[in-house]
Amino acid sequence: MKDYYNTLGLDRNATDADLKKAYRQLALKYHPDRNPGDKAAEEKFKEINEAYACLSDTDKRSNYDNFGTAEGAGAGFGFEGFGGFSTNFGDIFGDVFGDIFGEFTGRRRTRPAKGQDLLYELELTLQESVFGTDKEIKIPRWENCSDCDGTGSQPGKGPAVCPNCKGTGQTRIQQGFFTISKTCGKCGGHGKIITDPCTKCKGQGKVRRERTVSLKIPAGVDTGIRLKVSGEGEAGLYGGPHGDLFVVIHVAPHSFFKRKGNDLLCEVPISFVQAVLGADIEIPTIDGTATVKIPSGTPSGTVFHLKGKGAPKLGGYGKGNQYITVFIDVPKKLTARQKELLKEFAHISGEDTSKNFMEKIIDIFNHNEQAK
């Protein structure tokens, strides 16, 4: 039995948050796009996806924890009693007891099943997330073999009836009025076996291919958004439809902007003179530049905003805002003339620059004490 918890590096008490965190880290590490040509990394990526697909589903995880399989116990078994009274005891008796107190009433039918869903992590720039973009990604997946159309048999040679179960898919043991039915071990319950396997897929009916998928990323997506692409997952079983592809968005950090919801935040330096006298300054926006008026006497840390200069609301109307926090950029080097002018300014303002910081604190303390 595969140890899905070990595959993800977790114990059985792992929470949903633990699963997501472990999966994301491992998927990014072993993703084929980051390990081109590395077959070992590709196999590891497949194992990680298989483990997460099982453990992230509540029902599959419960079955796996209890029975060692994601499919649960008792599949394909029923209970039929005397006088037509019937019910399903598969979950109670597991895969040992099936049709009890009755005869086997029909063969197990192999039904088409939808293929497994796939998950892809896509990193975007901030601009791509704000304005939307078109992307092409390469997805390694299992597809139906084109030579045998997914049957697993050589062209023109279909599968043969299983000699063990005579095509029923199940074997029975009669003990008095008890009939115990089990899935046929030779054909796996399919009722047929492949006698002439397809040379291309080696009888699997599927081949591993890399498929290029075109994506249209809508404007306004943010980290954590999942986009669904129907029918781009793994091939289905027995003629069933393909699974779906889920694309998880991750927005890379920007050198100037920070995103908070639909708003964009930034910090802009202004000079001491601009803060005191006021000024009109030009600042970057996500789509160009804009002029912001700085009033005279603006303290460091003041926040201004530009309406509608943020990211659009995904699936809705309107945009967020851009918030600009200004801070006074203190010069590290001054000329003699600049120092002279600043001292003159301090003198005119009544500020005693000859005292150090501690002396100023003592003066403030003494002044407060005298005021009491």
Describe the protein's architecture and organization.
By secondary structure, the protein is of the alpha+beta class. Among the domains are: 109-155 and 200-252, HSP40/DNAj peptide-binding domain (Sandwich); 258-371, HSP40/DNAj peptide-binding domain (Sandwich). Helix content is 24%, strand content 26%. The protein contains nine helices and 17 strands. It has helices spanning 4-8, 16-30, 39-55, 58-67, 90-93, 126-131, 272-277, 336-348, 357-371, and strands at residues 79-80, 86-87, 118-124, 133-144, 160-161, 170-175, 178-183, 192-193, 206-217, 226-229, 245-251, 258-260, 263-270, 279-285, 288-294, 303-306, 322-328. The chain has a four-stranded mixed beta sheet. Strand 14 and strand 15 (288-294) form a beta hairpin. Helix 2 packs antiparallel against helix 3. The longest helix has 17 residues, at 39-55. The radius of gyration is 34 Å and the shape is elongated. The N and C termini lie far apart (80 Å).
List keywords for this structure.
four-stranded mixed β-sheet; 372 residues; alpha+beta; HSP40/DNAj peptide-binding domain; 9 helices
- The total count of helices amounts to 9
Write out the CATH superfamily name of the domain at 258-371. Urease metallochaperone UreE, N-terminal domain
Biggest pleated-sheet summary: 4 strands, mixed
Which descriptor suits the 3D outline? elongated
The percentage of residues in β strands lies in 25-35%
